Amino acid sequence: MQRVKKIMPRHYVMHRDEIKKITASDLFDLTHEDQLRKAQEWIKETAQACSVLAILIATVVFTAAFTIPGGNNEKGFPHFLRSPLFYVFTVTDVASLSFSLSSVVMFLSILTSPRESSDFLSDLPSKLTTGFILLFFSVLTSMITFSASLLLIIRLGKKWTATLYAAAIFPVVILALMEFPVYTNFAANFKDYLGPSKKKKRTHWR
């Protein structure tokens, strides 16, 4: 519909049907009410599920920040303060908390939006895509945090260290494979909504 709207004369947009006295936009909304309802339910359920996961990650990494691997010495400083892995643990823990809470904000903005048909053109897809990306990075950094804390405690060799990191990345890969088709569909639809560039349009009319 947006493609047709862009290429047709602007004054045609307000023309009304002789029988029902409605515009083309109104007719489109009437004939796609069922699709809109299904889309509203799907994006609501998706945002709710992702919000639960993001809140769970935020809770875990927030707790991990106060449960320092190895504990503290008699002066109150962490035992592994000078270890590079401790810095990895600290940075990724903070990053995971930031990513997860940011994704919660994005998903909550979807849940609190009216979710009208016009919102599905760019607003809701962009919010959901951003939420997916933030959630992906929160899972990634949380698994790195877990691996770093485990390595600080048990001190594995290089071979087992690589194996542990590979095992930690496995859930991230699964999440990426599951969500990547959704992301590509949103990206393709958004690109389709934007349409061809102005240069291509001028060439077409020539």
TrEMBL record:
Pfam families: PGG. This is PGG domain-containing protein. Coiled coil: none annotated. GO terms for cellular component: membrane. The keyword DNA damage does not apply. Residues 41-151 form the PGG domain. The chain crosses the membrane at residues 46-66, 86-111, 132-156, 162-183. The keyword 4Fe-4S does not apply. InterPro entries: PGG_dom (IPR026961). Keywords: Membrane, Transmembrane, Transmembrane helix.
